[in-house]
Structures are given as structure tokens and as C-alpha cells.
Amino acid sequence: MSNLKENNPDCTTCVAHGHSFFNILDKEGLSELALHKTCVTYKRGQFIFNENGFPHALYCLNRGKVKLCTIGVDGKEQILRLVKTGDILGYRALISNERYHCSAVAIEDSSICVVDRNYFLEATRKHPQLLFEVVRIISRDLKTAEEHIVSLSQRNVRERMAEALLFFKATFGFLPDGQTLNVTFSREEIADYVGTSTESAIRLLSEFNQDKIIELDGKKIKITNLPKLLKTANTND
Amino acid sequence: MSNLKENNPDCTTCVAHGHSFFNILDKEGLSELALHKTCVTYKRGQFIFNENGFPHALYCLNRGKVKLCTIGVDGKEQILRLVKTGDILGYRALISNERYHCSAVAIEDSSICVVDRNYFLEATRKHPQLLFEVVRIISRDLKTAEEHIVSLSQRNVRERMAEALLFFKATFGFLPDGQTLNVTFSREEIADYVGTSTESAIRLLSEFNQDKIIELDGKKIKITNLPKLLKTANTND
DNA sequence: ATTAAAATATGAGTAATATCATGTTTTAAA
DNA sequence: TTTAAAACATGATATTACTCATATTTTAAT
Fold first, then answer.
1. Is the CB of residue A85 less than 8 Å from the CB of residue A19?
2. Cα separation of A178 and A226, whole Å?
3. Strands annotated E in A21-137
């Protein structure tokens, strides 16, 4: 299956929305960038890059949602990070000149700007701001990952499930109704993030439903009692 | 208790050993660095910096060993990273201009170079290599953290304990006998890294001992059957 | 529209691991 | 050197969470 190339000559649209990684660049920088990128669309489930592959580009999510995941024990998937509009992906391996240690998969139909590797690395030399911004992002990811480590080490599955729902909310927010999570996952994917079995994930969501913390409608999850969810997570954020 | 300031005028010693972060700098860069750093010694158990504090310096471990840890649920400590000679610490918060999200504690008597914050940030502008090196290190930490996440999500306590011993070996190596780990931890600290209870950690180490995988002598751990330990960890590295 | 496959749901049994209790050894302080 | 505290060790029990089994619902393909 070949991906569509969209006609998206520059990053003005994204930058105008104020949520693009390339916000930092001035007008001149942006138009130069435009010469070295193409916009590609991916259907839900398609891979943007693959674990163990070498990075050839920096990706910037224009529209859609992406998960970064890796295959662990016995083929079990682990979701490591979630990517929302305006976020970049593939920077860690690119900037440190390593293979990818996880794969990027579109969790809904997505449109992604692909910035040539060499151009980007050159640009970080010309615009040190860009490099500092990458450092800031990797630092944030490291902090998030280490918070996840503490959670996995010290919290039970119920607390981690509550945390996961709060994390999904923090990342993608709500639909206009102000309660329904603006993202859907299969129960298995949720289990893969929480670090539990699919059955346990299903059971816990049903329990949260019975406890009037959430409401379930297929894959849609509505958080009807946020204070109680926060209490269930037993955390400060 | 006040810390001793050692007379260590430049990084030549460390750099000569080929394991200092500041290897990258040329002679001129090193002597400039020397003007902006002091060397401080810490006794075992002393804090180099504290969770939630603001970074005022970059630290470079000259001699000794350090753990980065955070206080999680109910005051339980979580060991997040281990620092060996030549490694820097405190870079994440410093470079991304945030508070520390973990504390640094000497796990044995240590000697640490303290590089002034402003000088270091300035130096990263003058020597972009330095910034790229920090990126490389944070990237490695992120990868390590995410591998730990997969392990905590998908492996049982026995496998994680075997992994932990292999990690201690990979970080600090062996004593000259080629079998005894060149680092000692309390059983509680090991439990805090593995993400289990102290009793379970004690029990598992006893089991490994009975299974002739390791030999215990107080806090000293001798790996007597590395192939069997690798098999127990059930991992590829 | 029909059908097969995948996802969701739930119960029952089991295994892994935590907790509690208690005793011993080691360490550090007076 | 003595003594108290901390660390280590191990058994018994409790709890959590996984696995297996089976049924239902949803999704996607024909």
C-alpha cells in the first residue's frame, strides 16, 4: 500500500496553530525547511518506522495520533509513548545516531511531515535553538519514562489503570462534551500500556464503570467522576 | 557536615583515563573548564542534589559511585539510574531548565567535580559537541528507562532480579577476581531497583545462591554461573 | 446480508508475590 | 566492648493478578 503525499508546501498551518515543533524557526527558516520535507498520510495501523531500523528522517505529526511501541516478551507489545498533533517523532535515534528502539504506528489516520535527516542535522547546527528544543523534549520523555518506572514498581494494577486514563486525558484531552477521551484504544492496547493482562484491563474498566468513575460505550471512555479517578490513581498529578 | 574540597586543578587525570565526559574538549577548553569547577568529596549516603531542587551546577563523578533515586509511594525509594566514574549527573534538569525529579546520593565515598551552571550552558554554545554529547547521554538514558519499563511490565520478579544483577555488572563490572560485583547494595536497595518487596529480594538472592548461580558473602555478590544467570534473565543482552 | 474472526466480557481456579511474624546476624554507636 | 538498631533471613498466610475456559458482542471481509 503506497501512502499519499499531500500538497502541504510549508509548516505555516501547523505553526499558526501554535503547536508545531518548528514554531522556533523564523519565516526564512520555515521556507527553507519546506524545501526538505514532504507530507505523507498513514492509515490507522500503518508503521511510520520500525524498531531496529535506521532513521532517515525526522517526523512531525500534522494530523492524527501515533503510538511508539516495542515488542517485548513473547511478542507482547509495550506502548512506550503517545504522540499528538505538533509533536515530533523519531528524534531520539536520529539525533543520537542509533537504530530505533521502538516502532511508530498510526493509531488513527494521520498526516505526517517527513523532514530529511541530513537537512535536519544541518539545521540543528545552524539553529542551536532547534537542538535545545530536542534536548528539552527528550528530557521530558525521560522524566515521564522514569515516573512510569516508579508507577510500575510501586503501584498496583488498579492504580496504574487510573493513571493510564489520566495520562490519555493529559495527552489527547476530551471531545467537545468535556468528558469523553479524545482517543480510543483496544482493551489490549490499554493493557499493554498499563503492564497487565488484557483480561485484567477489561475487568478493571468494568469495575470503574460499576463504581461510576467512568462510562463505557464500546471503545469510547467517558470520565464521569474525575475526582474519584484521581483518588483511585492515588497520585498527585 | 561540610564537604572537603580537593585540590584537583584540571580534568587531565580523568581525561587521561579516557572515561570523562569532558574528553571532547581540547586542551584549551579543559583549562578554561578548570577555572569554573571545584572538586568536592561526599561520604557514603550524602546527597549531591535533591529532588525538587533547582540545578545550579553540572556534576562529574571523579571517584566513587552514585545512585539517582526518587521517593515514590509511601516513602518507598526507587532507584532510577546508577552513575559510575567519568559519568556526569544533573544534566537533565540543568539543560532543560527544570527542577530535579530525582535525588543523587553517594553509594560509596565519592569525589565529584562541580561545574558552574552558567559556565556550562555557555560552554555548550561555544562547543556544540558538548551539547550533542549531552543529547547522546540523555538518549541512552531514555532508551534504558524504556527497556526497564518493558521489563517491569512483562517480566516476573525472578527474571527482573537476574536482569538487575546483570545491570549492576554492566555498570560497575567485577572486582579483580572476575566474579564479584564491584558494587554493594543493601537488599532493600536491590528491591527498590527491581520493583519488589525487600523480603522477595532476599528470598530470590537466597534461591540464586542455592541454585549455584551466585554466591553471597554479606553484601558481596559473586556471579559464579553467568550463563545460568543470563538464562534466568531470559533476555538477549 | 452473511459469516468468520476478532474483541469484549466474566467466572473459576491457580500461581506469583506481598505482607506479617519472628528469629538471627551484622553494623554502628555509645 | 557492650548494646541498640538496622539489616538479613525464613516460614506462614493473605492477596493480587494471571491464566484458562467459555460466552457474547462487535468488527470486518466476502
1. yes
2. 11
3. 37-42, 47-49, 57-63, 66-71, 77-83, 88-89, 103-106, 110-116
Q: Are A116 and A34 in contact (CB under 8 A)?
A: no
* DSSP β-bridge partners for residue A60: A88, A113
Asked whether B110 and B61 are in contact (CB, 8 A), the reply is yes
* Positions 189-208 in B, CB within 7 angstroms of strand D: 198-199, 202-203, 205-206
In the CATH scheme, what architecture does the domain B155-233 have?
A: Orthogonal Bundle (1.10)
Neighbours of B209 (CB within 10 A): 15
Output the distance from A188 CA to D4 C1' rounded to whole Å. 53
End-to-end CA distance of chain A: 42
- pTM of the entire structure? 0.94
Asked if B66 and B106 count as a contact pair (C-beta separation under 8 A), the reply is yes
Identity of the residue numbered A175: L
Alpha-carbon gap, residue B163 to B161, rounded angstroms: 5
CA distance linking residue A80 with residue A58, whole number of Å: 18
Q: Which pLDDT belongs to residue B235?
A: 83
The CATH topology of domain B4-144 is Jelly Rolls (2.60.120)
Inter-chain residue contact A195 with B135, CB threshold 8 Å? no
Give CA–CA dist A232/A182, Å, rounded: 21
pLDDT digits (tens, 9 = 90+) for B32-59: 888 999 999 999 999 999 999 999 999 9
Extents of the domains making up chain B: 4-144, 155-233
What are the φ and ψ backbone dihedral angles of A114, each rounded to 5 degrees? -110, 115
Confidence of residue A10 (pLDDT cuts 50, 70, 90): low
Interface pTM (ipTM) of the complex?
0.94
Torsion angle in degrees (nearest 10) through CA of B46, B47, B48, B52: 180
- Say whether the CB atom of B186 is under 7 angstroms from strand D: yes
Q: Count of CB contacts below 8 A, A vs B? A: 122
Chain A residues with beta carbon closer than 8 angstroms to that of B96:
135-136, 139-140
Q: What is the DSSP letter of B74?
A: G
For the record, the C-alpha cell of A82 comes out as: 503517545
B157 touches strand D (CB under 7 A): no
The gap between B120 CA and C22 C1' (Å) is 54
State how far the Cα of A212 lies from the Cα of A232, in Å rounded to an integer. Answer: 12
